[in-house]
Design a protein that fits this description.
Radius of gyration: 16 Å
Number of strands: 5
Order of helices and strands: HHEEEEHEHH
Largest sheet: 5 strands, antiparallel
Strand order of the largest sheet: 1-2-3-4-5
Distance between the termini: 25 Å
Strand content: 15-25%
Mean pLDDT: 88
Low-confidence stretches: none
């Protein structure tokens, strides 16, 4: 992912109103982000803990989405729909996102299960122990990274193309 300035990050959000966009609390450590190791950047709003924000590059342009976490937690331990990690060291929660444009203003949303703190980029880059003799752990990691990018891309395109 390419490094984004604060104004570019704020301007990237497609499923919020102008007022909501200006009220988004950006992470204070955005300048410290390791952009080369991020497939998307995500953060939570400390003052509104049910809100999450995610920005990914879609067709070379930053696209941001505001997500809302469901208040009810799942009864079983779910798998993240984006990183699909089965050995997650973190919680997975259900987020819904308003569609972009007219559909979102009409109340249409899409939901997904995602790592609560948006740790997917870190999860897929972890080298797992070899599953069998001759297992290529680096190739498996590369497949997980490609899978994460494909899942994030599909989710963003679904929400953005509903205009």
């Amino acid at each position: 992912m390419h490094a984004l300035s604060v104004p570019a990050l704020r301007a990237s959000f497609v499923n919020v109103s102008t007022r909501e966009r200006s009220a988004i609390v950006l992470p204070h450590d955005i300048g410290d982000a390791d952009w080369d190791r991020l497939d998307y950047i995500g953060w939570r709003d400390a003052k509104a803990p049910l809100l999450g924000f995610v920005v990914a590059e879609i067709d070379g342009e930053p696209v941001g989405l505001q997500l809302r976490q469901a208040e009810q937690l799942t009864r079983t331990r779910p798998q993240c729909s984006w990183c699909a990690d089965v050995t997650l060291p973190n919680d997975v929660v259900f987020f819904s996102a308003r569609r972009a444009g007219r559909a979102g203003r009409s109340g249409n949303t899409v939901g997904t299960l995602v790592c609560a703190g948006f740790e997917c980029s870190r999860n897929v880059r972890r080298l797992d122990p070899p599953a069998y003799l001759g297992h290529d752990a680096a190739a498996a990691r590369d497949r997980r990274i490609a899978g994460l990018r494909a899942h994030v891309d599909a989710f963003f395109r679904d929400l953005r193309n509903s205009v």
